[in-house]
Amino acid sequence: MRTWYIAHADINYYDSALSPDSYSMSTEIDLYKDDLAAYGDPEIFAAVEAFTRVSQPATDRAQEGFLLDFKVAWNDSALKTAAAFANTFGGLLFIGVSEQQGRADQLVGIATQRQELKTTIASSIASNISPTPPYEVRDLAFPDGSGRHLCIVRVRKGNSLYLLTKKAEPPVYVRNEDESRPANAAELQALLATRFVPGHTPAEPYGQALSPGVHHVTETRAANDAAGGDRTRSETFLRVRLTPVEPLAVRLDLAVERQFFELARTCFPEIAENVYQYGRQIGATFDDYRTQDWYHITYTETLRDYEMRWGCDSAGTLHFVTQTRCKLLDQESTPGVWSLCDVMTNLDCAIELAHQFWDCINYVGEAGVLAELRVESLPLLARGGGMQSGYASAFYERPGPRRRVKPLSSEALTGTQRPGTTAVTDLTYATRWSSHAEPISLVVNRFLRDLGYAANLTDLRALF
Q1: pLDDT average per 10 residues of sequence, the chain (464 residues)
Q2: How far is CA 214 from CA 154, 343, 383, 464, in A?
Q3: 3-state SS, residue 342
């Protein structure tokens, strides 16, 4: 379980005690803070030249310090610097820039294919620093067509204790002036007092207030009510909150809203198809709502009296909530069922939405997942018989573009249902960018056990 603590002091990147001395502001690009993906290679290269001042006399060039380091190539020393930045104040690491006595010397670059160096750096950090710190890498080509590249590695101060896992290396590095070195006893004690340590269980990280309108869904009072009848809060739902390990500062505007909406349509394609292809026949619509720090999207469907909501906030947290009760179109007399496959499919879609949204705003770090499932007295849907008997889909039963979770064999699940469950897990670097089978299986296993069921994790992973 993830948690974080409020820092006792903010670090100003332009504080003379920390930042490179006489940092030139002649360029409009701030390499510490700006979105580097928004600029082309020539603009970034010019900004690097202005920042390092390699054309100036040696005494006037940018100097390494708490927040800055230069490396000719990516190596173990660069890896230690990345870990030290994450454990201290964050900082900029330039790969492909030489230094003399701690000052920038030449933009030497590295002969490599486009993005090859970036991939190497990302793989090295993910494999050798645990947990993965919040960072981003900007690869840029030299404008002379030589095929040389350099990388800007921007590491942010994290809220965890970041451990170097390479064999025979000290595990904790910190930044002290212009060097990255192993933490001494006093520094380690200070880090342990203010950072989350993997394997421990600190205070609950998800106590912040929920946005109005994203933490619940509604339904008509009874299954046979008219479409225009009074609606009340649903007692059965799946609610998911995906929180970055390091809270972000997202400037919500129309462009961000449109991007989030398009990602929701992409990650939940059958929902979008219901609106844009079958909207009139089944009464499916999208509506949105905004406040100063929130943006919400609501999907409603009259035919099955179904509601689903998504939300994002200015801290980069993603919210998703959907009903778990679903009417079976071929069994109108039943009050509804809940589907294990639909729960897992919705978890998969929600994680993918969060991953893509964070990728768009250049957040590559890890996240915490808090999920709550309420099914009350609804029966768990099982379809077919004999060898085909399984816990299948209720809401996503119609063939569509979404890759749905496979049905779980009814023989693979035992127990008797009880109401209500909550589960917490993490999204690591690996599970964000690859299959979501592991975090979803862990969450669903917790769900099932709290509900009174038992299944093998191996069987749950095999459903993807």
Answers
A1: 26 36 52 86 94 93 93 96 91 95 94 90 92 92 93 88 90 91 84 64 40 56 50 84 81 94 92 86 90 92 89 92 81 75 92 91 78 87 73 78 79 82 63 77 90 91 87
A2: 33, 17, 32, 28
A3: helix
Residue 52: phi, psi to the nearest 5? Answer: -80, -25
- From residue 335, how far is each of 234, 305, 329 by CA, in Å? 13, 11, 11
Residue 101, classed as helix, strand or coil, is coil
Structural domains in the chain, sorted by start: 36-194 (3.30.950.30), 218-461 (no CATH)
Q: Report the alpha-carbon distance of residue 343 to residue 192 in Å, rounded.
A: 37
For residue 438, the model assigns a pLDDT of 85
Please report how many Cα atoms fall inside a 13 Å half-sphere around the Cα of residue 391, on the Cβ side.
25
d(CA 412, CA 445): 12
Q: How confident is the model at residue 140, as a pLDDT?
A: 94
What are the DSSP calls for 224-262, one per residue?
Answer: T--TTS-EEE-SSEEEEEEEESS-------HHHHHHHHH
**What is the Cα–Cα distance from 215 to 310, expressed in whole angstroms?**
9
What are 409's strand-pairing partners?
390
Distance CA 389, CA 381 (A): 10
pLDDT for residue 422:
66
What CA dihedral angle connects 384, 385, 388 and 394, to 10 degrees?
A: 20
In this prediction, residue 208 carries a pLDDT of 41
What is each CA distance from 126 to 32, 73, 139, 323, in whole angstroms? 22, 18, 17, 36
Please confirm whether the linkage preceding 212 is cis (ω < 30° from 0).
no
Q: How many residues does the chain have?
A: 464
